[in-house]
Specification:
By secondary structure, the chain is α+β, with helices and mostly antiparallel strands. Helix content is 24%, strand content 32%. The protein has 1 helix and 11 strands; from the N terminus they run αβββββββββββ.
């Protein structure tokens, strides 16, 4: 009786198979890294845009509140009308745009300083990317502010046209509303990829290639105490 032993030979991967496996794995890993990087970038952009909205709306809320208060005085106020209860200086964009000053009866101004003679004077302007009130920072990331006054020419308490602070013929005694435009930008300069055009002050502005994203926020406020 003859007994035959069967010998089993184990076979490993060839060099070609290993190279193919490594190539496929590399492609998969590269794809995963690219996807994660894109997702991270998208999250950064979304967070930055959300931050713009917070800054823009907060700044507008602060300014709008004071516009509504402009010219306010108690019924027993003995000093007569508050002259120039609201005014603005038309400044260039490079200087942060326009400034806005409001006056009303009160105890303390926006810096919590005592108001001389009981008259609060709050001046808003943009300085070095910060919206300020009497030098006190309100919100950051603001590039520019533009102010427009709505004139009522037919005495129906509705603005018929809008004029810039320096417009010829502007009659502040007929102003019934104020419109504020804020241009807000991201703090980081690596958010956008490539030049970014944006709308501001009712115009499409030239694209800027500085890695920042810009958005416009605006509000129209009816004056409760006409000048």
């Amino acid at each position: 009786m003859t007994c035959c032993n069967r010998i089993t030979h184990s076979r490993g991967f060839t060099i070609i198979e290993l190279m193919i496996t490594l190539a496929i794995t590399s492609v998969l890993v590269l794809g995963a890294i690219t996807f994660l990087a894109s997702a991270h970038k998208a999250n950064l952009v979304q967070s930055a845009i959300s931050g713009l909205g917070v800054s823009g709306r907060f700044g507008l809320d602060q300014v709008a509140r004071d516009i509504r208060m402009s010219g306010y005085r108690e019924s027993d106020w003995m000093l007569g009308a508050l002259n120039n209860a609201i005014s603005s200086i038309d400044r260039v964009s490079a200087a942060g745009g326009d400034s806005l000053t409001v006056l009303y009866e009160g105890v303390r101004d926006c810096t919590y300083a005592l108001a001389p003679g009981g008259v609060v004077t709050n001046t808003y302007q943009v300085t070095d990317g910060v919206l300020e009130c009497n030098g006190q920072p309100i919100t950051r990331g603001v590039q520019e502010m533009q102010v427009y006054f709505g004139e009522d020419t037919d005495n129906n308490r509705v603005a018929n046209h809008w004029l810039a602070p320096s417009a010829a013929g502007l009659d502040m005694s007929r102003v019934v509303s104020v419109r504020i435009h804020l241009l807000v930008r991201t703090d980081a300069n690596d958010i956008s990829s490539g030049p970014q055009a944006y709308y501001f002050d009712q115009q499409l502005q030239a694209a800027v290639d500085d890695g920042q994203i810009r958005r416009e926020y605006s509000v129209t406020v009816a004056m409760r105490n006409p000048t």
